[in-house]
């Protein structure tokens, strides 16, 4: 029997309550995404004999009781296409299996793709062909911002683009299943909400079954199934078959089955995910080698707001050259050189140098920089994933004065170990005999140690010269201040110049200048530093020899 394909007004179904203005919204959304470069979601063809999105044979999933088009001799069927993102596959399968179990399989073609393969920036021909035969496009939308949503948008775009060019016996339409809220641009539109609140998610299966036992024909999913039943009967009429009527009890059980499977799928999803460690990603478009001295300015450093705030940056992504230019003058060179040190150490060996440490600009917290992943792409670009692990500070014990004396003694001793010990990496002789590469590493470490001294002095409330008068005499304090302040400024400048020096000639000049200023520190600060250590040692012993009550009162 041949039937003329003429669109009749009588075949147009009234809009259901859950459709609302979805058609207008997805027309706009579809046109936008149909031209975009998206990312494919995972999937597997649910139909035997078909191929996946990369052309590979598809997997067959629960197709019992299905009568194919070929077996029916070309009888038309109601086409239902389920579009979803990879992270929503279990939700999509719950809807797919529920529809399949409820409708007349002789007159419905329910299609879902779960092959999970990328196929480029154009829809696979099989999917395009299937969309042309689709009457109801079901979109599963959870609102999660993931790359795979691009594919859902492309499917919607293709479906809506050919809306007026493809004849189907029933009105083609789009139905959306969403979690808690529609996209912001779709405010005011209606769909089928499948999200559950915290109380519902905490129920066990038996209690949830009892909760959905009251579902009736007015439920949104029941109305959706009624819509499908009505459309199926249109196709039955085309070959002179009577309506197939479903009872309310059938729909109620099918709706409950879909809701239960959605509940099970939602319970396996993440409620939230916490990453306690701070992380940055350095993306480099250029091909780096072990001979590279610094990151290209076009490299991008990105991280969440909390992580980027360590560097005083409000943005979540910044070009490397802008980071170096705008970061705190006090810390930017040490930040730059430390991150580059970790990155470059991973280029020619399996293990990176994870001993590097930085000081945050805002709170003076100390973070160890650890490279956890290095990715190199075929085009030569690279990604470096670095965690910033906060170093814990020991709690102060004892009375306040004893603690302060001990911290002051520790600061003075550390300074002595840096410059006056023969085996120290920072003594002038070590810099003089070291290579340029070694000197750069030592200059970086020197700047870091000087920042640690400054930070620890501030935290111990020892940054005020008047505090030191409690441990020694004023002449010693005045002499130290006059001598060391200008030397400290010149020492830090020389270390910075060592880090930024280009080439061997400029590097040798910076090295010689750094050696010279360290020698001046060694000459000028040796005796004053030793005098202060003796005074602090005497003060500590005197304070420890006092009775506990006296020592506490003295604080």
TrEMBL record:
InterPro entries: TIR_dom, Toll_tir_struct_dom_sf. One of its GO terms (biological process) is signal transduction. Residues 80-183 form the TIR domain. Pfam families: TIR_2. This is TIR domain-containing protein.
């Amino acid at each position: 029997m041949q039937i003329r394909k003429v669109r009749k007004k009588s075949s147009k179904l009234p809009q259901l309550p859950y459709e609302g203005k979805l058609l207008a919204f997805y027309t706009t959304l579809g046109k936008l995404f149909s031209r975009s470069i998206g990312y494919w979601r995972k999937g597997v063809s649910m139909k035997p004999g078909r191929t996946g999105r990369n052309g590979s044979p598809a997997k067959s999933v629960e197709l019992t009781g299905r009568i194919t088009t070929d077996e029916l001799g070309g009888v038309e069927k109601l086409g239902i296409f389920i579009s979803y993102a990879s992270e929503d596959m279990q939700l999509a399968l719950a809807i797919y299996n529920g529809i399949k179990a409820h409708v007349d399989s002789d007159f419905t073609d329910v299609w879902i793709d779960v092959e999970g393969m990328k196929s480029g920036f154009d829809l696979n021909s099989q999917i395009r062909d299937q969309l042309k035969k689709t009457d109801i496009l079901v979109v599963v939308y959870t609102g999660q911002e993931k790359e795979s949503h691009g594919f859902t948008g492309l499917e919607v775009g293709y479906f809506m683009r050919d809306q007026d060019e493809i004849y189907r016996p029933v009105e083609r339409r789009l139905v959306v299943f969403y979690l808690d809220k529609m996209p912001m641009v779709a405010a005011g539109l209606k769909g089928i909400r499948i999200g559950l609140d915290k109380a519902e998610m905490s129920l066990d299966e038996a209690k949830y079954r009892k909760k959905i036992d009251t579902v009736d024909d007015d439920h949104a999913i029941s109305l959706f199934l009624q819509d499908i039943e009505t459309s199926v009967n249109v196709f039955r009429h085309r070959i002179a078959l009577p309506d197939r009527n479903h009872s309310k009890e059938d729909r109620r059980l099918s709706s409950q089955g879909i809701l239960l499977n959605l509940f099970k799928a939602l319970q396996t999803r993440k409620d939230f995910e916490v990453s306690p460690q701070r992380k940055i990603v350095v993306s480099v478009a250029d091909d780096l080698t072990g001979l590279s001295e610094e990151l290209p300015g076009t490299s991008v450093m990105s991280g969440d707001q909390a992580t980027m705030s360590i560097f005083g940056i409000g943005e979540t992504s910044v070009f490397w050259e802008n980071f170096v230019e705008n970061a705190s003058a006090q810390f930017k060179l040490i930040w730059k050189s430390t991150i580059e040190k970790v990155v470059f150490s991973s280029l020619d060996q399996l293990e990176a140098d994870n001993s590097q440490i930085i000081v945050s600009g805002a709170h003076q917290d100390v973070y160890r920089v650890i490279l956890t992943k290095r990715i190199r792409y075929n085009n030569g670009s690279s990604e470096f994933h670095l965690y910033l692990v906060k170093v814990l500070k020991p709690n102060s014990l004892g009375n306040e004065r004893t603690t302060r004396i001990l911290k002051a003694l520790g600061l003075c001793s550390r300074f002595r170990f840096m410059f006056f010990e023969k085996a120290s990496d920072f003594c002038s002789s070590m810099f003089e005999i070291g290579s340029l590469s070694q000197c750069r590493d030592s200059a970086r470490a020197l700047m870091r140690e000087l920042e640690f001294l400054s930070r620890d002095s501030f935290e111990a409330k020892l940054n005020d010269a008047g505090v030191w008068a409690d441990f020694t005499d004023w002449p010693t304090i005045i002499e130290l201040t006059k001598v060391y302040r200008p030397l400290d400024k010149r020492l830090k400048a020389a270390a910075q110049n060592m880090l930024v020096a280009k080439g061997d000639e400029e590097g040798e000049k910076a090295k010689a200048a750094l050696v010279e200023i360290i020698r001046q520190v060694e000459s000028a600060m040796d005796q004053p530093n030793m005098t202060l250590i003796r005074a602090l040692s005497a003060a500590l012993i005197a304070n420890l020899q006092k009775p506990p009550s006296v020592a506490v009162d003295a604080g």
